[in-house]
Amino acid sequence: MKISNVTTMNGLKSFMISLILVFSSESYAQCPTNAADLANGFTVTSGNSCSVNAGGGLNITGTVTVDDGGSLTITNGYTDVVGGTLNINGAYTVDPSIIMWVYSGGAVNVGATGTFDLAGGDIQIYNGSSMAVSGAITNADDIWTMPGGNINVAVTGTVQVVNFHNNQGTTTVDGTLTVSGVFSSLNATTTGTGFIDGTYTDYGGNTLGEAFVGCANGDGSCGDISLPVELTHFEAIYVAGKGKLNWTTASEYINEGFNIEKSYDGINFSKIGFIAGMGTTNSTNYYAFEDNQAFQNAYYRLKQLDFDGNYEYSPIVYLSIDGGLKPKVELYPNPVVSNIYINGDLEVVYRMSVFDLNGRQLTPIQSMPLYDGQVYLSNVFKDLVKGTYLIQFIDPVNSTIVRVVKQ
After folding, report:
1. Which of 171-185, 282-296, 316-330 has the lowest mean pLDDT?
2. Which residue has the higher pLDDT, 87 or 95?
3. If you placed Cys at 174, which of 145, 192, 213, 317 could pair as Cys (CB 3.0 to 4.6 Å)?
4. CA angle 107, 112, 113 (to 5 degrees)
5. Are 70 and 48 in contact (CB under 8 A)?
């Protein structure tokens, strides 16, 4: 009986050890051993870096997940998502220059911590299938939203691609889509409140939303990073001993806010306040600021600041506290190439000089008599590069600033 019991116990112990080893090998596998293991579903956990030979190509029919801190690289063939799900929260890289199809209800989800490197290849999203991007897609050659397909770029998402084709599908951009080649659209819907940068070709039958306003105007360009805020109104009025500034924006992109700047000569400005912006929005927003030190006539401008460090200056507005008017000066043509006509109200002698938008004086102050209210100046802008400039005119009482564009 004792011997029999020992034998039984030893057998049970061997069985338990074997069982533990089996469970351990399944629970703690670091990488797929072959393409079939990956296709049926696998999770690459944090800290593991895996490379899988696709054997010419494989179809993901289960759920493949790359955790944050993990990485998965596919070699030797395509990887299609056929009714399965690919969750990318770490780093995922495909074989260079392949075409990846997502169909039969398949889904690709790039999480906020995920990076999907297409390595110069393409991805096509078909009917009933989707791609959601909260992280980053890089090095894509062509991305296609096919009939019935859906692509969604979330607020935190960024997509970099050479050509983007919205072919009878739906694309929503709340983040950033950068197209270095052409964004083309046919019988498709593009919407969202994000930013699209690229050149647009419209093949007809399209529905374009807020994210696509820049493309929808037909000028061949989508977004414009150099003009992140659309300022539609800016004024300065004197009320009850204070200078009140009011301005309105129709849309904003990564707008951190506005520095309010003041000048007594229209050239040398200093900051007197700050108003926070609305970030990214396509809604109309109203802003106001009060200058409690409005003791004399002054000029104001806004320095609009982006979260990425870029900035733009607004037009300059004039505040009169004594009811007087700044000298009225008009010039044409504007934009100008070289020569310019200047019209004024009175036959007075103006002093004139040209400045850049940072207040640097580019030409010496020169006297400019107006006869019959007009003077013709040649070669004033001949040696200046293309851009926007400020001309200061000073009469015996006041001064004024006129903005001019050099072509």
Report:
1. 316-330
2. 87
3. 192
4. 105
5. yes
pLDDT tens, residue by residue, 250-270: 878 778 999 999 988 777 889
How far is the C-alpha of 77 from the C-alpha of 59, rounded, in Å? 11
36: three-class secondary structure by DSSP:
helix
> Which residue matches tokens 């299609």?
80
Query: CA 324, 312, 250: angle at the middle one, nearest 5?
Result: 80
Pseudo-torsion of CA 33, 34, 38, 44, nearest 10°? Answer: 30
Percent of the chain at pLDDT exceeding 90:
31
Residue tagged 């006539």 (tokens): 297
Q: Give the integer Cα–Cα distance in Å for 35 and 39.
A: 6
How far is residue 58's CA from residue 66's CA, in Å, rounded to a whole number?
17
User: How remote is the C-alpha of 310 from its chain's centroid?
Assistant: 12
**Is residue 13 predicted with pLDDT exceeding 50?**
no
Q: Longest Cα pair distance anywhere in the chain, in angstroms? A: 130
CB–CB of 402/318 below 8 Å? no
Q: Which CATH class is domain 229-319?
A: mainly beta
The strand pair at 317-319 and 298-306 is best described as antiparallel
Which numeric CATH code is attached to 329-406?
2.60.40.3080
CA 375, CA 95: separation in Å to the nearest integer?
68
For 301-332, the pLDDT digits (tens) are 899 998 878 888 887 788 877 655 455 677 77
